[in-house]
């Protein structure tokens, strides 16, 4: 599954799932563009180190995914986009009648609208290159729902729907669009929540993982960022050339319930 000669842009990729996807794409030989809203020495060093590790070109480009013009500027600044991974996302939990308007607007902008802006800017580059892959990181919450996550669930359902539209619009071209729907993934952010949650419920950390965090994940195991990245690499491969407009769940059986 060599991706040598391809350029991949991964939004929200200086940590967590985004970084895991970037690493696996780089491992497969793709040049990678990392992104987040920050712009400090650590961000650029992260890209530099990743490039050295896998022997590929790696750059970091700052862009705020809550702003449409910056989403489009990210693609334009990169100069090429064979593979677009729309990954940037945030979360907020609240009853819908108490959901802060500014949080709703931010989640819709970052989790869904950024995918629209980036895809709209990337498709002309893919068409010019004669090849392209759009990989949207949706969620199990793009296929099902949970209480108190109205904005996140709405945004991820929207991403799944938009994936299908892009697939239909590019169906006769060598371009595909698919969504990966992870369940709970072991990221630094999730790991950091475990000790506090254990104290809150007076449980051991193992009990918190099984009974609270992974309550809806039948495997009772986290997915890993490497697994999400490996799925993205597969979707970019020739083996997946006729896979378009669909979702791949990496959720330990969550959406099988």
TrEMBL record:
Which Pfam families does this chain map to? adh_short_C2 (PF13561)
Q: What superkingdom heads the lineage?
A: Bacteria
Report the protein name in the record: D-beta-hydroxybutyrate dehydrogenase
Q: Which NCBIfam families match?
A: PHB_DH, PRK12429.1
GO MF terms on file? 3-hydroxybutyrate dehydrogenase activity
Q: Which organism is it from?
A: Salipiger bermudensis (strain DSM 26914 / JCM 13377 / KCTC 12554 / HTCC2601) (Pelagibaca bermudensis)
Which family is this sequence assigned to? Belongs to the short-chain dehydrogenases/reductases (SDR) family.
The uppermost taxa in this organism's lineage are: Bacteria, Pseudomonadati, Pseudomonadota, Alphaproteobacteria, Rhodobacterales
Instruction: Name one process (GO BP) from the record.
Output: monocarboxylic acid metabolic process
């Amino acid at each position: 599954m060599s991706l040598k000669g391809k350029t991949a842009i991964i939004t929200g990729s200086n940590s967590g799932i985004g970084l895991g996807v970037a690493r696996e794409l780089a491992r497969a030989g793709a040049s990678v563009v990392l992104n987040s809203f920050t712009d400090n020495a650590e961000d650029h060093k992260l890209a530099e180190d990743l490039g050295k590790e896998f022997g590929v070109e790696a750059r970091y480009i700052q862009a705020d995914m809550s702003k449409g013009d910056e989403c489009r500027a990210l693609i334009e600044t990169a100069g090429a986009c064979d593979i677009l991974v729309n990954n940037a996302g945030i979360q907020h939990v609240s009853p819908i009648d108490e959901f802060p308007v500014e949080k709703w607007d931010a989640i819709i902008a970052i989790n869904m609208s950024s995918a629209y802006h980036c895809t709209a800017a990337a498709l002309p580059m893919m068409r010019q290159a004669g090849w392209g892959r759009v990989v949207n990181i949706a969620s199990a919450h793009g296929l099902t729902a949970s209480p108190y996550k109205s904005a996140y669930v709405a945004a991820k359902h929207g991403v799944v729907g938009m994936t299908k539209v892009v697939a239909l619009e590019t169906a006769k071209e060598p371009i595909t669009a698919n969504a990966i729907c992870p369940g709970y993934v072991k990221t630094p952010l999730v790991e950091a929540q475990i000790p506090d949650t254990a104290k809150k419920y007076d449980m051991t950390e193992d009990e918190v993982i099984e009974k609270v965090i992974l309550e809806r994940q039948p495997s009772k195991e986290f997915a890993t960022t490497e697994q999400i990245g490996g799925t993205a690499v597969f979707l970019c491969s020739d083996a997946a050339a006729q896979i378009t407009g669909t979702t791949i769940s990496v959720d330990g059986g969550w959406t099988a319930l």
